[in-house]
Inverse folding.
């Protein structure tokens, strides 16, 4: 009997939470990845601000990570509730295009040409980042000056890599090395050397960066913007992003309006809002550079060096990506 | 073995069986529908690819090795714990269940903080030995995978075997001693065969757990050659977007674990009617010293990685004391503190609801299994476990994209249901040995006295199960508390539990915050364990 009582209490306790779940049907539905949509992500302050300024209420749907969100759009097809999708990266953009409408917003003029990966403006870039190796400047080793420096024997067991099969950051490095070394032997040589120098190959960015901050190895694959967090929150410049002359792989996040929406005007307002007022908050929360060049960033971003040369992940075809991943696995598992 | 009147027990178990079937068949059939698309093209590909064989070989090796070592290591400790009573005995048993609740990412971090090349253990050893380089290199190798798996699973084996052992009367062993048989011989001939059920149960549990291990293998193993089915499925879902291939692969792995399950279910333990549990001797003199030593060994194995997480919640990497993480959690302005409090409440309620249901339904299934000697029921109730996070997880994500829903209430229900199907098999497995230990003569005696079946269950059989139920509850609760994948995929991120918040904190570079939340998670689990264990002071375990 006692148990039944506890059960009842438990269910009763959940009930009020359920009441919040009701969705207003006239709201603008926005699909976004989890880290944007969570209460303490940028959405926590941005969405109320947008609602207050425009009087448009927003139904924000937290749709998993960027890839899961895309899958959802594909599966739902015409029946989707989404009016706007936020956070599709350039490498998967080709899959989203059939479901999106063009929007030539005047606001996008502040976005530099090299970031505009879609000539038809179905996806408009709102922020971007560049993959980079971050290193601990107090580790006593010489600073690696280039991608090929990393293969030197002195960095044996000093580098934490990430598996391209399970992480977009890991995949970023794979495409990065491909963009630099191309189809020749150099690609294979680089990875064979890195096999020796890698302390471990993590499943995702989170565990890799965790190992790094615990001091397990002084070099880790991450973003050029990673030092910003350490400057803003820990007041230290010990961790620095390495900018290599060969260039860096970029990842660009875009926002788009879903085809057949009956809230086109509201959707446009939302996109413009993300491309202007929301830029700073998003940049800080995501540790990314804002696409809008007119935005002034906090001083901490001085420690996020912008590479001169960027490769776009979206430029490599999905078939080539799969071939590279297989080749990578071959190199890393053979003895 | 069939006795008349077992229909009543089957009837009682029906709701549980029904839940099992529904909750298991939905994700499974979704998997099937994907795997068999285009005339099973994906399935054929899986079977003709040599890489599948490579995956299978490695997965089996690590899972069998992890399970074997965990069980073997647990035996001597279980032997001692079921022979003597001594101070802290219950505390150690309670603590050892805790490692189960920690989300994998924190286990990995706890391991790195403690065992890492630059970790606390190394720092300590370096100081003692006066060296300026790391003393032990255990991480980033195959050894590390096994160590982490044993760390997570030794407590399961230890708890299950101790539980079964203390529940057995020792009259047969005593008889054997009287006949002049030695201790070793008595153990091998008398005790071991009677423990077989519990040992096999523990072995299978651990095997299945390690079969679908993922982050530990990748991060601590440090070599992509160490790939399991789960890695490959993850890759197919997330990188190649090959749902058909992923579904085919998950069916294949389910097929293998299913076969293993059916084979092992045929070697069920011989049931022995036992009226009394053993009386534990008080540890004195030599055995008390042994007790101290054994407790120290267990604590030194279990506690450091967990305490490392607590340590990191208060100290920076450089070793400076700080309350920053806690201030972040307590600060009102960010919206984060409300998330943290909500997450604690959510985690607690979801775990409470799903584990109460699991014990309620599970104990009925266990009793029906024992009463009817059914072979199908235990296999049936283990199927979701055999499918593991691989098939279930994929099934749930397929479900999440198929079922459109906007209601938060529905999200909660989905999450609770998914947790229920994950923890129910554990509950059934934990309770079955208890149900089998109930002598059938007891019920018969009760009927002879004219007492109804319902009352016999309530007054005679259920009380005998209570210690097993409490154990099952604690297990189920711990499992649900640490669950991440199903929660995330099924709730669209609308239902935030503690481990999910931990992942998000880590995602925003905040390891200290994650460690602080990890501390809260451990605390929550500890409180429930103490409540669950503390029900009866005189219970045997």
């Amino acid at each position: 009997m006692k148990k039944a009582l506890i059960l009842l209490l438990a269910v009763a306790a959940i009930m009020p939470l359920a009441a919040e779940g009701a969705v207003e049907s006239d709201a603008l539905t926005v699909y976004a990845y989890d880290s944007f949509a969570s209460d303490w992500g940028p959405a926590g302050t941005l969405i109320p601000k947008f609602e207050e300024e425009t009087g448009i209420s927003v139904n924000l749907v937290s749709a998993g990570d960027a890839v899961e969100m895309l899958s959802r759009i594909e599966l739902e097809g015409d029946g989707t509730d989404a009016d706007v999708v936020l956070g599709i990266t350039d490498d998967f953009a080709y899959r989203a295009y059939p479901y999106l409408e063009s929007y030539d917003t005047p606001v996008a003029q502040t976005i530099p040409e090299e970031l505009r990966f879609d000539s038809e403006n179905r996806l408009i870039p709102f922020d971007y980042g560049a993959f980079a190796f971050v290193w601990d400047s107090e580790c006593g080793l010489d600073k690696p000056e280039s991608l090929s420096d990393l293969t030197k024997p002195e960095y044996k067991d000093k580098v934490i890599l990430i598996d391209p099969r399970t992480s977009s950051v890991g995949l970023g490095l794979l495409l990065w090395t491909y963009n630099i070394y191309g189809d020749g032997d150099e690609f294979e040589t680089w990875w064979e050397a890195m096999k020796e120098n890698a302390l471990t190959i993590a499943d995702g960015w989170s565990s890799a960066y965790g190992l790094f901050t615990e001091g397990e190895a002084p070099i880790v694959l991450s973003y050029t913007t990673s030092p910003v967090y350490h400057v803003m929150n820990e007041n230290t410049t010990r961790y620095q992003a390495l900018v290599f002359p060969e260039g860096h792989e970029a990842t660009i996040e875009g926002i788009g309006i879903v085809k057949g929406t009956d809230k086109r005007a509201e959707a446009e307002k939302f996109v413009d809002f993300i491309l202007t007022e929301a830029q700073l908050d998003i940049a800080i929360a995501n540790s990314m550079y804002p696409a809008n060049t007119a935005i002034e960033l906090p001083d901490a971003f001085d420690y996020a060096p912008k590479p001169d040369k960027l490769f776009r992940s979206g430029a490599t075809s999905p078939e080539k990506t799969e071939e590279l991943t297989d080749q990578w696995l071959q190199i890393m598992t053979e003895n | 073995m069939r006795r008349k009147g077992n229909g009543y027990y089957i009837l009682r178990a029906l709701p549980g069986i029904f839940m099992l079937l529904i909750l298991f068949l939905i994700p499974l059939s979704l998997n099937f529908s994907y795997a068999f698309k285009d005339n099973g093209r994906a399935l054929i590909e899986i079977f003709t690819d040599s890489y599948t064989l490579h995956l299978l070989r490695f997965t089996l090796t690590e899972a069998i090795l992890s399970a074997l070592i965990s069980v073997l290591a647990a035996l001597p400790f279980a032997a001692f714990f079921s022979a003597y009573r001594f101070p802290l005995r219950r505390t150690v048993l309670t603590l050892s269940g805790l490692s189960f609740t920690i989300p994998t990412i924190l286990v990995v971090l706890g391991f790195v903080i403690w065992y890492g090349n630059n970790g606390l253990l190394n720092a300590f050893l370096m100081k003692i030995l006066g060296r300026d380089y790391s003393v032990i290199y255990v991480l980033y190798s195959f050894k590390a995978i096994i160590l982490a798996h044993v760390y997570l699973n030794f407590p399961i084996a230890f708890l299950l075997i101790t539980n079964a052992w203390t529940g057995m009367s020792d009259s047969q062993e005593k008889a054997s001693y009287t006949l002049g048989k030695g201790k070793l011989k008595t153990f091998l001939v008398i005790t071991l065969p009677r423990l077989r059920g519990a040992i096999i149960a523990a072995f299978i549990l651990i095997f299945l757990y390690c079969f679908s291990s993922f982050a530990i293998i990748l991060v601590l193993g440090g070599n992509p050659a160490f790939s399991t089915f789960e890695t490959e499925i993850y890759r197919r879902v997330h990188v190649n977007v090959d749902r058909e291939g992923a579904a085919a692969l998950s069916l294949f792995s389910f097929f293998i674990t299913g076969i293993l399950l059916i084979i092992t279910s045929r070697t069920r333990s011989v049931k022995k009617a036992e009226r009394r549990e053993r009386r534990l001797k008080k540890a004195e003199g030599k055995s008390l010293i042994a007790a101290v030593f054994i407790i120290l060994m267990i604590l030194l194995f279990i506690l450091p990685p967990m305490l490392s997480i607590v340590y990191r919640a208060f100290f920076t990497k450089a070793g400076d004391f700080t309350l920053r993480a806690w201030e972040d959690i307590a600060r009102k302005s960010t919206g984060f503190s409300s998330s943290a409090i909500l997450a604690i409440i959510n985690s607690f309620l979801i775990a409470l609801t799903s584990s109460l249901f699991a014990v309620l339904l599970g104990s009925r299934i266990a009793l029906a299994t024992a009463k009817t000697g059914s072979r199908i029921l235990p296999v049936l109730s283990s199927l979701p476990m055999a499918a593991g996070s691989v098939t279930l997880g994929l099934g749930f994500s397929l479900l999440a994209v198929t079922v459109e829903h906007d209601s938060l209430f529905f999200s909660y229900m989905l999450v609770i249901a998914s947790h229920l199907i994950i923890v129910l098999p554990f509950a059934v497995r934990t309770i079955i040995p208890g149900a089998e230990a109930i002598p059938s003569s007891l019920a018969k005696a009760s009927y002879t006295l004219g007492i109804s079946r319902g009352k016999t269950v309530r007054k005679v059989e259920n009380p005998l199960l209570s210690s097993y139920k409490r154990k099952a509850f604690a297990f189920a609760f711990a499992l649900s508390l640490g669950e991440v994948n199903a929660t995330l995929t099924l709730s669209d991120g609308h239902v935030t539990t503690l481990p999910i918040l931990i992942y998000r904190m880590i995602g925003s570079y905040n390891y200290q915050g994650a460690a602080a939340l990890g501390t809260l998670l451990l605390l929550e689990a500890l409180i429930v364990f103490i409540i669950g264990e503390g029900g009866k002071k005189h219970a045997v375990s």
In short: The domain at 130-249+306-333 of chain A is CATH 3.40.190.10 (D-Maltodextrin-Binding Protein; domain 2). Chain A touches chain B through 70 residues (CB under 8 Å).
